[in-house]
């Protein structure tokens, strides 16, 4: 699955991610979530639809560099594919690594976006 689940989508929205950054949506998701198997390509969205992000849309949200005003340090994005199913995303500089996440593609991207939102980098 290369898109956010309903739960991940709801969490990203709760943290303040703008719905217009999504490239897909869960159509009429409140009806019966057990019957939904894949999200729809973004089109006309109404109040019954829930934004959904593909891996590509989430990657587009990742800043290549972040700036920490408290420490006056910048950190660069480091993204690697460790094997067929595991990915690594971190922000680092020569002295410090304030964030690192490892795992499946969507989970790793979602956790990274959550951290960036919580820390007000995006």
Outline the secondary-structure elements.
Elements: H1 6-14, E1 24-26, E2 40-41, E3 50-52, H2 55-61, E4 65-68, E5 73-81, E6 87-92, E7 99-103, H3 105-118
Antiparallel strand pairs: 1-2, 1-3, 4-5, 5-6, 6-7
Short précis:
With about 120 residues, the chain is of the alpha+beta class.
Please tell me about this protein's structure.
By secondary structure, the chain is an alpha+beta fold. The protein folds into 2 domains: 6-58, no CATH class; 62-118, no CATH class. It contains 3 helices and 7 strands; from the N terminus they run H-E-E-E-H-E-E-E-E-H. The chain has helices at 6-14, 55-61, 105-118; strands at 24-26, 40-41, 50-52, 65-68, 73-81, 87-92, 99-103. The strands form 2 sheets. The chain has a 4-stranded antiparallel beta sheet with strand order 4-5-6-7, covered by helices on one side. Strands 2-1-3 form a 3-stranded antiparallel beta sheet. Helix 2 (55-61) runs parallel beside helix 3 (105-118). The longest helix is centred in the last third of the chain and has 14 residues, at 105-118. The radius of gyration is 16 Å and the shape is globular. The mean pLDDT is 84.
């Amino acid at each position: 699955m290369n898109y956010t689940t309903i739960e991940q989508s709801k969490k990203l929205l709760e943290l303040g991610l703008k719905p217009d950054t999504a490239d897909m949506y869960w159509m009429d998701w409140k009806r019966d979530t057990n019957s939904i198997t894949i999200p729809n390509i973004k089109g006309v969205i109404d109040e019954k639809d829930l934004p959904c992000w593909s891996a590509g849309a989430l990657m587009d949200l990742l800043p290549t560099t972040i700036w920490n005003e408290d420490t006056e340090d910048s950190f660069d994005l480091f993204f690697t594919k460790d094997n067929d199913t595991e990915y690594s995303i971190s922000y680092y500089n020569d002295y410090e690594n304030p964030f690192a996440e490892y795992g499946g593609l969507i989970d790793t991207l979602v956790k990274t976006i959550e951290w960036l939102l919580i820390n007000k980098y995006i």
